[in-house]
Amino acid sequence: MGKNSLKRAIELDVVDFAEHTSAHGIPRAYVSTGWRRYMWLLCFLFCLSCFGHQAYLIIERFNRNDIIVGVEIKFEEIKFPAVTVCNMNPYKNSAARELGAIRNALEAFEMAIDKSDGNAHSKRMKRSSNSKMIPVDLMCKEEHGMLMANEFGHLECTCITFDDSETNEDEDEMYWNCHRKKDWNHRICHVAEEHNQLKTCKCYEENCIEDGVTKQMMWPLQMKRNGTKLCISVESGGPSYCANSQKFEVSTCKSCDWLGKCEEENEEESGVEEKKKSCICHHGNCFQIKNNTKVVMKVSTESNSRMRIFQKKKRRAPERKVHERLLSRYEGLLAVYSHCNCTTQHGCVSTSVPDMDLENSNKTCLCFYNQKNEQVWPCYKEPEWEERKCSRCNTLGDCVYTDKPKKQNISCLCATPIKMCVRIDPPQTNETTLDDRIVKFWDIQPSTTMSPIVKKKEERDKAYGYSGVKDRIALRAKAMENIIFAVDALTESQKWQISYDKSDFIMKCSFNGKECNVKHDFVEYLDPTYGACFTYGQKLGNITNERSGPAYGLRLEVFVNVTEYLPTTEAAGVRLTVHATDEQPFPDTLGFSAPTGFVSSFGIKLKSMVRLPAPYGDCVKEGKTEDFIYTQKAYNTEGCQRSCIQKHLSQTCGCGDPRFPPYRESKNCPVDDPYKRECIKNEMHVATRDSKKLGCSCKQPCNQDVYSVSYSASRWPAIAGDLSGCPHGMAAQHCLMYKREQGSMIEVYFEQLNYESLLESEAYGWSNLLSDFGGQLGLWMGVSVITIGEVACFFFEVFISIISSNRTKRRPDRKSFSSSLRCSTDYNLNKDGFNLDN
């Protein structure tokens, strides 16, 4: 087919479409002539452009994937959530101090507290010693968590009162600052103006009161005051011993020589029948004194005119370690650990620094150390030493070897090859090793090379991070972090050993008004911040409330045992969190605190959320990956964020944060490594300030139950009478105070037996798109589905005209719609007698 024939065929197709299409405007433009045709064409193009703009807006809205959140209150059976409770004190103080890492952390914290209060300490002591107040020993009773002077009390205590005051009926105004007698210590806090007198004080923590007892040195000793220092010397010579006057403590001694120098009495020798002497001591250096005892008489004017006499008693100073006392003496002899070169020919020889070039130099042995000539000899390997009991030791530390050690009572260490013994400290606990009681020679002897022990201690102190910190709150927060790091290095059994047991912590329990089984209904786990925590609801499966309100929820009576609180714990009470049964609880960030002495009521409401995944929303149906550190729990955003941070820390610092579970096979950072802890600190700042650098993608789960909590509290117990949970024989009023100090009541319940359902759905779907698209086509173009079919047929016929060479020959001539209509009209009108032609 030629070009003219093809052109003619396409023109016929266009004419046929223009005459027969159902779309508005196109037939009008075709049949019209002159300016009317152009008007209809312009109108058609304008409507087409308007439709195009509206179509763009419709498609843009569809691509936004908007959602609608439907809120509905449903009255259906509600599953009771899991409730996790923890003691705000993570570990028992007495048990925790038996473990070296925790003990070191607590001792470093206490030293940091003492240093931070150094200036305030001296000012308080000076002010207290100048006042006319004295301490008195009397009987007290505990009221409202405080000790109050009371003649019918059962606790021995020491209180403060005015020296020249007259008693009256209101005893509470006479005595204040009462504490248990054993909590006060007896030391020197002020030196009198006269050079031959000094005063002693009773001190509770940093609060000191002059006791009014004058102490004088025994002849031939004399005391001189040099500013804040106290110097004691023999009368014929110059000063022989000087120290801070506040560091001297009053004690009892024995074996004083004619110069007045004494050996302090210890617990092992306390039963020996020997005349005791009063003395003052500083780090094992003791000097004999005269003691002018004084009895303070206080008369109480009461209805029966009874008289009470309070007599002051001395408190023994804390016992010093044996090596500290021996090192303070001129001729002290003690056992020390030392670096040695050991050979079969010459035995072991002490070296100040191990020689790495020698094969046998990197060994540690036990040696005798003579304080007089600073000689470390002889030395033997540790298996050649034996810890025994000796019958007699002199003040220099030398002990007599005996063949019957079981009948003796003084701890000593003997070199079996030469049967020579020196005195050592007895073990404090079963876990105390010989290494803890023997001094290291490199710790007491200056050296150009820092010993491994000293270097490790300095690194540990640096890792603790107390340097330069003076604020108590900041120190306590740092100490809590150090304890978390220290506990992480313990074994699982050691962690449970120092934690609270659920039978001791949870005293009573009820659910739905029925008693529950504490042993079987609670699941225990170890939280890095709060130690042992206990979860109710995980073992029981789908448990539901019969009714709403506190009486039909979970009710717990807990015992927090304040007497075992660590010094780093700031508040007494319970930490509680409400969560889904398959989720990991996070009491450190998502918990609530319940104080002791109150009924803490937690009303909960459930919100059940169903989110849409992509492209409509940003949730995940299953978000757990291999990097999720809470492997046994369901996915949530908090766990995802912690997993992401822990992964970053493990890859950057080589170890993780012990506040989170370890990442895969990596370990958490140790407490005494300052460099890794500094890395953890810096990278945590990076993670919190710019989390995008970590590449974390923590999306919300598509199905989630969220519990909102409201809190209220009231005083508990209300009245005295219930003696359950109190020590046997305790009076009702004392039991009331005991429970308010040590216990708490917890209530967790549904406020209403309905829940709020939040369901996401698509706001603009395919049905909306087709409806709006068809409406716009009909409005602007008059187009329907039939019109769309006509357009399809038009393009199909054009395509056939192009590829078919004989199409015009085969296809019969087609009449247009307008010519057919005119022919039909002419025929009908002529038949009826009308003529339309002019």
TrEMBL record:
One of the record's GO molecular function terms: ligand-gated sodium channel activity
GO cellular component, one term: plasma membrane
TM stretches of this protein: 38-59, 777-804
Subcellular location per the Swiss-Prot or TrEMBL entry: Membrane
InterPro entries given in the database record: Deg-1 (IPR004726), ENaC (IPR001873), ENaC_CS (IPR020903)
Protein name (record): Uncharacterized protein
Membrane topology: Multi-pass membrane protein
Record bears the keyword Transport: yes
Species in which this protein is naturally found: Caenorhabditis latens
Entry keywords, A to Z: Glycoprotein, Ion channel, Ion transport, Membrane, Sodium, Sodium channel, Sodium transport, Transmembrane, Transmembrane helix, Transport
Lineage of the organism: Eukaryota, Metazoa, Ecdysozoa, Nematoda, Chromadorea
Family to which this protein belongs: Belongs to the amiloride-sensitive sodium channel (TC 1.A.6) family.
Lineage: superkingdom: Eukaryota
